[in-house]
Design a protein that fits this description.
By secondary structure, this protein is α/β, with parallel strands linked by helices. The chain has a single domain, classed as Rossmann fold (3-Layer(aba) Sandwich). Helices cover 32% and strands 17% of the residues. The protein has six helices and seven strands, in the order αβαβββαβαβαβα. The chain has helices at residues 2-11, 49-58, 92-101, 113-117, 131-134, 148-159; strands at residues 37-43, 69-71, 80-84, 87-88, 107-111, 127-129, 139-141. Strands 2-1-3-5-7 form a five-stranded parallel β-sheet. The longest helix is centred in the C-terminal third of the chain and has 12 residues, at 148-159. The chain is globular, with a radius of gyration of 18 Å. The mean pLDDT is 86.
Length: 161
């Protein structure tokens, strides 16, 4: 056991280096965030597949916080609104109110195909539309459900890290 502790102490910290910072097509609003964003997540009517992947993206393996994105509980403290799912009729007004409660500058990230274009729920009677039909969207992350790597890449566009 002592030998194992000596090896661990001698090795030090062993982690993979971060990938290259994203370059190029950052949204215009992203330049004012100065490398750190506070994120408020809203489920507008999803099947919870995207929520599982968001949990993985913020978890210890992908660790989105190391790129300057942190989940917050109130839209009044948020810079970015992370929206999943097609906007149901019951969530259209609460989503608008959440967006309006955020201080400027603010950005919206639509996560998943359902948030981008209603996905498999397109045309359903309870769906008001995609996120972009209700509030303006700055970044879209494709996939059903998008992989944690895609979520991290999309959020890194906003933080610039």
């Amino acid at each position: 056991m002592q030998a194992l502790w000596r090896r661990i102490r001698g090795l030090g910290r062993a982690a993979e280096p971060a990938p290259q910072a994203p370059d190029g097509d950052r949204p215009a609003v992203a330049s004012v965030f100065a490398g750190s964003v506070q994120v408020r997540h809203v489920d507008a009517g999803s099947c919870n597949g995207c929520e599982v992947e968001i949990g993985s993206a913020f978890g210890p393996v992908y660790d989105l916080e190391r790129y300057g994105a942190r989940l917050v509980a109130s839209p009044r403290h948020a810079d970015v609104l992370l929206v999943t799912g097609p906007v149901s009729r019951n969530m259209a007004e609460p989503l608008r109110r959440t967006y309006e409660a955020m201080p400027a500058p603010k950005a919206v990230v639509a996560v998943g195909d359902c948030a981008r274009n209603c996905g498999v729920f397109a045309g359903a009677y309870g769906v008001a539309g995609a996120v972009g039909d209700v509030i303006p969207v700055d970044v879209e992350i494709a996939g059903c459900a998008p992989r944690p790597e895609a979520i991290v890449a999309g959020m890194r566009k906003l933080t610039g890290r």
